[in-house]
Amino acid sequence: MAKREEILTVALDLVAQQGFRRTSIKDIADAVGLTQAGLLHYFDSKDDLWVEILRRRDEVDSAHDWGIAAEDPGAFLAAIVRHNTEVPGLVQMFVNLSAAAATDAGHPAHEYFRERYERSRDDFTRDFRAMQQDGRLRTDVDVEQLASVLLAISDGMQIQWLYDPSRDMAEHVELVARLAVAQSVTTASA
Question: MF terms per GO, please (predicted)?
Protein backbone atom coordinates (compact mmCIF):
# COMPACT_ATOMS: atom_id res chain seq x y z
CA MET A 1 0.00 0.00 0.00
CA ALA A 2 2.85 2.40 0.77
CA LYS A 3 4.28 2.03 -2.74
CA ARG A 4 0.84 2.61 -4.29
CA GLU A 5 0.49 5.78 -2.21
CA GLU A 6 3.93 6.93 -3.33
CA ILE A 7 3.03 6.24 -6.97
CA LEU A 8 -0.16 8.31 -6.70
CA THR A 9 1.58 11.20 -4.96
CA VAL A 10 4.41 11.30 -7.49
CA ALA A 11 2.05 10.83 -10.46
CA LEU A 12 -0.19 13.66 -9.25
CA ASP A 13 2.79 16.02 -9.16
CA LEU A 14 4.15 14.87 -12.52
CA VAL A 15 0.82 15.28 -14.32
CA ALA A 16 0.26 18.69 -12.70
CA GLN A 17 3.72 19.88 -13.79
CA GLN A 18 4.29 18.18 -17.14
CA GLY A 19 0.75 17.84 -18.43
CA PHE A 20 -1.50 14.86 -18.98
CA ARG A 21 -0.41 14.00 -22.51
CA ARG A 22 3.29 14.57 -21.73
CA THR A 23 3.39 12.31 -18.67
CA SER A 24 3.98 8.68 -19.54
CA ILE A 25 3.77 5.54 -17.48
CA LYS A 26 7.54 5.33 -17.96
CA ASP A 27 7.98 8.81 -16.44
CA ILE A 28 6.01 7.80 -13.37
CA ALA A 29 7.72 4.40 -13.09
CA ASP A 30 11.17 6.00 -13.34
CA ALA A 31 10.27 8.58 -10.70
CA VAL A 32 9.29 5.87 -8.18
CA GLY A 33 12.05 3.41 -9.07
CA LEU A 34 9.91 0.78 -10.81
CA THR A 35 9.62 -0.70 -14.25
CA GLN A 36 6.45 0.08 -16.20
CA ALA A 37 5.19 -3.46 -15.56
CA GLY A 38 6.06 -3.08 -11.89
CA LEU A 39 4.12 0.17 -11.67
CA LEU A 40 1.05 -1.28 -13.41
CA HIS A 41 1.12 -4.19 -10.95
CA TYR A 42 -0.49 -1.75 -8.49
CA PHE A 43 -3.34 -0.82 -10.86
CA ASP A 44 -5.73 -2.70 -13.15
CA SER A 45 -4.67 -0.67 -16.19
CA LYS A 46 -3.17 2.63 -17.31
CA ASP A 47 -6.67 4.16 -17.33
CA ASP A 48 -7.23 2.89 -13.79
CA LEU A 49 -4.05 4.70 -12.74
CA TRP A 50 -5.33 7.94 -14.30
CA VAL A 51 -8.64 7.58 -12.43
CA GLU A 52 -6.82 6.97 -9.17
CA ILE A 53 -4.75 10.11 -9.76
CA LEU A 54 -8.01 12.06 -10.10
CA ARG A 55 -9.30 10.50 -6.89
CA ARG A 56 -6.09 11.56 -5.16
CA ARG A 57 -6.52 15.08 -6.53
CA ASP A 58 -10.03 15.15 -5.06
CA GLU A 59 -8.69 13.99 -1.68
CA VAL A 60 -6.00 16.68 -1.70
CA ASP A 61 -8.51 19.35 -2.70
CA SER A 62 -10.97 18.22 -0.01
CA ALA A 63 -8.30 18.35 2.68
CA HIS A 64 -7.05 21.80 1.62
CA ASP A 65 -8.09 24.89 3.58
CA TRP A 66 -9.45 27.16 0.87
CA GLY A 67 -10.12 29.99 3.31
CA ILE A 68 -13.77 29.91 2.27
CA ALA A 69 -16.74 29.19 4.48
CA ALA A 70 -18.11 25.76 3.63
CA GLU A 71 -21.58 27.30 3.59
CA ASP A 72 -20.82 29.23 0.39
CA PRO A 73 -20.61 26.61 -2.35
CA GLY A 74 -20.18 29.18 -5.13
CA ALA A 75 -17.12 30.72 -3.49
CA PHE A 76 -15.80 27.26 -2.62
CA LEU A 77 -16.07 26.05 -6.23
CA ALA A 78 -14.53 29.30 -7.51
CA ALA A 79 -11.55 28.83 -5.15
CA ILE A 80 -10.95 25.31 -6.48
CA VAL A 81 -11.30 26.47 -10.09
CA ARG A 82 -8.88 29.33 -9.40
CA HIS A 83 -6.41 26.78 -7.99
CA ASN A 84 -6.80 24.67 -11.15
CA THR A 85 -4.94 27.35 -13.11
CA GLU A 86 -1.86 26.29 -11.13
CA VAL A 87 -2.20 22.64 -12.18
CA PRO A 88 -3.03 22.72 -15.90
CA GLY A 89 -1.97 19.11 -16.43
CA LEU A 90 -4.64 17.94 -14.00
CA VAL A 91 -7.22 20.06 -15.81
CA GLN A 92 -6.17 18.39 -19.07
CA MET A 93 -6.51 14.97 -17.45
CA PHE A 94 -9.93 15.78 -15.99
CA VAL A 95 -11.28 17.09 -19.31
CA ASN A 96 -9.87 14.20 -21.34
CA LEU A 97 -11.05 11.46 -19.01
CA SER A 98 -14.47 13.01 -18.38
CA ALA A 99 -15.15 13.13 -22.13
CA ALA A 100 -14.00 9.53 -22.59
CA ALA A 101 -16.00 8.32 -19.59
CA ALA A 102 -19.15 10.19 -20.59
CA THR A 103 -19.21 8.53 -23.99
CA ASP A 104 -18.21 5.02 -22.89
CA ALA A 105 -19.98 3.42 -19.92
CA GLY A 106 -17.29 0.73 -19.93
CA HIS A 107 -14.44 3.19 -19.45
CA PRO A 108 -12.68 2.85 -16.07
CA ALA A 109 -13.42 6.53 -15.31
CA HIS A 110 -17.17 6.28 -15.99
CA GLU A 111 -18.20 5.28 -12.47
CA TYR A 112 -15.77 7.76 -10.90
CA PHE A 113 -17.33 10.69 -12.78
CA ARG A 114 -20.89 9.50 -12.23
CA GLU A 115 -20.30 9.27 -8.48
CA ARG A 116 -18.33 12.53 -8.38
CA TYR A 117 -21.07 14.53 -10.12
CA GLU A 118 -23.78 12.97 -7.97
CA ARG A 119 -21.87 13.71 -4.75
CA SER A 120 -21.00 17.26 -5.83
CA ARG A 121 -24.59 18.04 -6.85
CA ASP A 122 -25.89 16.65 -3.55
CA ASP A 123 -23.35 18.63 -1.49
CA PHE A 124 -23.96 21.89 -3.35
CA THR A 125 -27.73 21.40 -3.27
CA ARG A 126 -27.62 20.89 0.50
CA ASP A 127 -25.48 24.00 0.99
CA PHE A 128 -27.61 26.14 -1.33
CA ARG A 129 -30.75 24.98 0.45
CA ALA A 130 -29.18 26.09 3.76
CA MET A 131 -28.39 29.45 2.16
CA GLN A 132 -32.04 29.82 1.13
CA GLN A 133 -33.19 29.01 4.65
CA ASP A 134 -30.78 31.63 6.04
CA GLY A 135 -32.03 34.25 3.59
CA ARG A 136 -28.69 34.39 1.71
CA LEU A 137 -30.05 32.93 -1.53
CA ARG A 138 -33.09 33.87 -3.53
CA THR A 139 -36.06 31.65 -2.79
CA ASP A 140 -37.07 31.50 -6.45
CA VAL A 141 -33.84 29.67 -7.37
CA ASP A 142 -34.08 25.90 -7.83
CA VAL A 143 -31.07 24.80 -5.77
CA GLU A 144 -30.66 21.47 -7.57
CA GLN A 145 -30.53 23.22 -10.93
CA LEU A 146 -28.12 25.83 -9.56
CA ALA A 147 -25.79 23.07 -8.36
CA SER A 148 -25.84 21.44 -11.81
CA VAL A 149 -25.35 24.75 -13.60
CA LEU A 150 -22.36 25.72 -11.45
CA LEU A 151 -20.70 22.38 -12.13
CA ALA A 152 -21.40 22.78 -15.85
CA ILE A 153 -19.98 26.32 -15.83
CA SER A 154 -16.88 25.08 -14.02
CA ASP A 155 -16.31 22.19 -16.43
CA GLY A 156 -17.10 24.23 -19.53
CA MET A 157 -14.81 27.05 -18.47
CA GLN A 158 -12.00 24.55 -17.94
CA ILE A 159 -12.31 23.53 -21.58
CA GLN A 160 -12.34 27.16 -22.72
CA TRP A 161 -9.37 27.92 -20.46
CA LEU A 162 -7.34 25.11 -22.05
CA TYR A 163 -7.86 26.87 -25.39
CA ASP A 164 -7.32 30.35 -23.97
CA PRO A 165 -5.60 30.60 -20.56
CA SER A 166 -6.51 34.29 -20.36
CA ARG A 167 -10.12 33.22 -19.62
CA ASP A 168 -10.83 33.59 -15.90
CA MET A 169 -12.64 30.37 -15.01
CA ALA A 170 -13.34 31.35 -11.40
CA GLU A 171 -14.80 34.70 -12.43
CA HIS A 172 -17.49 32.91 -14.45
CA VAL A 173 -18.38 30.57 -11.59
CA GLU A 174 -18.60 33.59 -9.27
CA LEU A 175 -20.85 35.41 -11.75
CA VAL A 176 -23.45 32.64 -11.73
CA ALA A 177 -23.29 32.36 -7.94
CA ARG A 178 -23.74 36.15 -7.59
CA LEU A 179 -26.76 36.10 -9.88
CA ALA A 180 -28.39 33.47 -7.68
CA VAL A 181 -27.66 35.44 -4.53
CA ALA A 182 -28.84 38.77 -5.96
CA GLN A 183 -32.10 40.03 -4.59
CA SER A 184 -35.16 39.51 -6.73
CA VAL A 185 -36.29 42.55 -8.59
CA THR A 186 -39.61 43.63 -7.17
CA THR A 187 -41.96 46.20 -8.46
CA ALA A 188 -43.61 48.01 -5.64
CA SER A 189 -46.63 50.08 -6.32
CA ALA A 190 -46.61 53.48 -4.74
Answer: DNA binding
